[in-house]
Every structure is written in structure tokens, then in C-alpha cells.
Amino acid sequence: MKVLIVGQGGREHALAWKIAQSARVTKVYCAPGNAGTAIDAENVDIGVSDTDRLVKFAQSESIDLTVVGPEVPLVNGLVDAFRKARLRVFGPDKTAAQLEGSKVFAKKIMKLANVPTAESHDFSDAEEAIRYVEERNEQPLVIKADGLAAGKGVAVCDTRDEALAAIRTAMVDRAFGTAGSTIVIEEKLVGQEVSILALVDGRTIVPLETSQDHKAAWDGDKGPNTGGMGAYSPAPFATPELMDEVISKILIPTVHTLRKQNIEFRGVLYAGLMLTSQGPKVLEFNVRFGDPEAQPVLMRLKSDLFDVLYAAADGKLHEMPDLEWDPRPTVCVVMASDGYPGKYEKGHAIRGLDAAAQLSDTKVFHAGTAKSGDDVVTDGGRVLGVTAIGDDLSVAKRKAYEAVKCIRWDGAWCRKDISDKARQA
What we know:
Elements: E1 2-7, H1 10-19, E2 27-32, H2 37-40, E3 42-43, H3 51-60, E4 65-68, H4 71-75, H5 78-84, E5 89-90, H6 98-101, H7 103-113, E6 120-123, H8 126-135, E7 141-145, E8 154-157, H9 160-172, E9 183-187, E10 192-201, E11 205-207, E12 212-213, E13 216-218, E14 222-225, E15 230-233, H10 240-260, E16 266-276, E17 279-286, H11 294-300, H12 305-313, E18 330-336, H13 353-357, E19 362-366, E20 369-372, E21 375-378, E22 382-389, H14 393-406
């Protein structure tokens, strides 16, 4: 079987690495890929938004399964084009992908499904949004750009002035382009964050093991939001009782409500949750594997990922045996470029990758990397996802940071506290 992975980040490297382990898979391509996927798969120089060339490549190479990694091609309808060409593809179509592509759409579905989430209002006029904040009692608010903003379109605001500044950034300064032309203003939820991912084939829902992302740039959850500075799995807050509640009150109602709207969801349904004193509430929905959550979760997966995704694409998840998991925990530490999540330079040579690769129970997943001659160089804000597995969380964390210490480039940095939140459980 031949597989095509669409994307070029750490998530896609993890998918390529895991799928290549399948006994049924003979070839894995990654379009466009990065310096890491070039080792575990074969890169194809086609961008994620080049729909016609991706379809033609899948046809010419007789690809048996295409897995779409990032959200942008999903929201833009890549899956629709593949299905129209009668190509097997894993991922939601353009309509279903609105769950991530539009915060307003997601809130509408949650309301119809009676899914617990923060109270919110949406605005397409900046003055109305500003007036709404100015006229209400001061309280912590979250300002979200409606569209895709690479994980940076959310501002958590503790004061009125911060909320007003966030509105102007999105709607007046257009920092996120058209994604911020409409915004959602919602109450700030307080608690621990947990990521729950499930494979969905339209009817059957198969939850994956839990994880916890670290969105803030700096230690102690300080600083600006990023695409994710690290993650670990499992998340101790996600007890079996909580998982039952999430499945019955969030995942099943969401998928059922979409079906009632004539929207069949096939792909990964990712619920970003806040565990509040009133129970779990949805912060956001994503429609693909998380990045960096995919790295620690897939490292723990013992089942054949190809078999599962192939079945999901065909609507046959109900025929699959239960997923098998390594009980040992995993930790993924993201190494980033100086300046991220703001402006950063590319092209710095990365040293120490070979030394890190020699460490046991560790895998360095490439995110923003490229080849330049014989060198692997930085090519993004989040550059590497250094991931390790250990007998307990402290061992996994130690192994991950040992590998981090092997790797250097000008301006490299990372958070030092990935997985420490687990101690609060």
C-alpha cells in the first residue's frame, strides 16, 4: 500500500513515521515534507494548497490512502477534491472542517448540540465589539478571530483594556488578515486544559489517548499564545469517568448534530477542553491531529495506524479491534526559533541531531526544518518536537530534555516545564 501525507510540520513527521511502521505499507510520501520526513518517507515538492497537483500525484502514483495533516487544506476543500476524483482520503470535507475554520460555526453547532462551552457573542463590526466590552462589567474575556490564524488568533484578556486592544488588533489592524474580520468574544474559563482527540468515520467514534498541550510561550504559562510549545500523554486529569462524560456530552452530540445538518464528519475530531468547576467545557474544536499532541500520542500507539485510518476513510471503524496503547507516558518538548511567535529568522544550521538520534526511547520530530546542502537548517518558528517515552512521567521528561541538550542552533529555545502540570492532578 502507498500512502501520501499532506503537510510539512511535526504532526506530519509523526504520521509518516508511524504509518511507515505498518507491515502493509510499502511507500510513504510527504508533500511537501521537511528534513525529517525526508528520512522516514519520501518528500514530494507539492505545496499543501496545490490541490490539482496533489490529486494528479495521487492518481499517477496509485496512492491507496491520503492523510491530510494541517487545517488549511482541509478548510479549503482538499478532501472534497480527492473524493470527487474517487481517491481514498482521511480527513473532513470542507463543510465539516468549518468546525475549526470558523469559531462562529463551531459555536452554532455546540449550541444546537447542547455541548457545554463558554458563553459568547460574535461581532463583525469593530465599534459594536468595542461598545459591548465597554458597556459590560469588567471581567476576564477571551477574544478569538473567527477564521484560521495559525494558533495565534486567540487573546486571553484579564482586563478591559487588554480586551479592547485585542479587538483592535484583530479587527482594525487586521493582524490576522480576513480571519479577524469577525471575532468571538467569550467568558474566560478557568481550570486545567486537556486535549481529547477521536477518530470518526461519520458514525463510529474512537477516542485516542489523552494529552495536554502548552500553548503559552514561556514557563508557567506566561507570554503570548503559540501553536504549542510541548505536550505530554496521558493527561492525568482525564480520568475514565471524565472520558465517559466527554464522549456522551461532547463528542457524540457534536457528531450527531452535524449529521442532522447533513454534514458527515470523517477524520479527527479534536476537542480542546477546559476542566472547570462546572465540568468539562469546550474551548475549541479542531479537525485534525494536534501539533504537538500527535507526537507524544502516536509514540504511545501500538496498533497499526495505517489500518485504523484506512478503515476510518472507508466508514468501517466499527470493524476494527480496540486500539492498543503503551502504558508508559511520553513528553514532547518543542524547540523554537528566537523571536517566535513573533518574527524570526530562518536558515540557521542545526547541530547535534545525530547525537540526539542515538538516545534510547527518543525521537526528534522535525517541524520547521529544511535541507541546505549537507546541513539541516531552521525553516519555521517551531523547529523540532523532541519526544521521549519513559517508565514514568519524570523519566520521560528527563529523556526528552537530555535530547534537547544535544541540539543547538543560533537562537534556539524551549520551555523548561513541559509536563509539570501533571503534578497538579
